[in-house]
TrEMBL record:
Residue ranges of domain Aminoglycoside phosphotransferase in the record: 22-214
Protein name: Aminoglycoside phosphotransferase family protein
SUPFAM superfamilies (UniProt xref): Protein kinase-like (PK-like)
Gene3D superfamilies, per database record: 3.90.1200.10
Keyword entries, A-Z: Transferase
GO molecular function terms listed in the Swiss-Prot or TrEMBL record: transferase activity
Originating species: Hamadaea flava
Amino acid sequence: MVAVDEVEVVIAHDERATLRVGEVFLKIDADRARLDAEVEAMTLAPIPTPRILWRKPPVLALAALRGTTLGTLGQPSTASPAAWAAAGAALRSLHDAPLPPWPGRSVDKLAADLEDECEWLLANEVLPTGVLPADVVTHNRRIAETVLRPWTPAFTHGDLHVAHVFAEGDTITGVIDWSEAAPGDALFDLASLTLGHPERLDDVLAGYGDADRDLIRAWWSMRCLLAIRWLAEHGFDPNAPGCEIDVLRAQM
């Protein structure tokens, strides 16, 4: 038996938690359907994902990936341009794959969510983590609304945070956290990956291929506006350097 020095809490909130025990990650999710979808998405995705060791709901055990994450919000990425391009190429493979067999979020649902979140943000200008002026919200809403148009659905990861992509040298070794995978707008994944790292967009598109940069930037605004309330209510700080509120301010 391999000795384990400690149990690390990677992330925890009232919906789910992830623990690291040596080289094993334990994902605990009370939503059985979400856990089922995550497992199926990892099985269907044509790109590297963590190896599933065992599954006994509400727990999913995954093997650790080799390498390190592409980056962290608020800090410069030390990954090479080639690694970012490789992430773009992996995304292209994912977006070209057959769609997962469950629905994604519709344009109408996205518009309704944007309306709700902006109303909340305007009513709660002083957040527990800082101040978000009304003009920042309204300006970014105008930008975000440009993504509300028909799109051809692609197999999207749905939460392609830069810390969810692992690389070893110039090679992508895997992508984690597939709980939000669904048919959706491919540009949302590109925006999620480069959120807070706009200087890496050229590198990503070098591997991915041509994409509408204005819509990617609009998805930066959309993703941040939709995320801030959830983050604040679950103990995260959207006002931390390089995070959601900084991104919104940079869009001004």
